[in-house]
Amino acid sequence: MEGFLIMLVLGLAIYFLPSIVVGKKSFALQVFLLNLLLGWTFLGWVIALVWAAKKEDR
Questions:
Q1: How many CB atoms lie within 10 A of CB 48?
Q2: Where in the chain are the domains?
Q3: Looking at the whole model, is its pTM more than 0.90?
Q4: How far apart are CA 10 and CA 14, in angstroms?
């Protein structure tokens, strides 16, 4: 049971990695929503990760 919980938490952390990486940027909500709704597709997850790593324009 402990192994299952560890794997579940690790899997969720990897799934929401783009949302974690984005931090407090102005487009954080958009990245989170993209990650939440399309992150299950590999392409959606990669797009969210690239967007999260993008520098914020000022």
A1: 26
A2: 2-53
A3: no
A4: 6
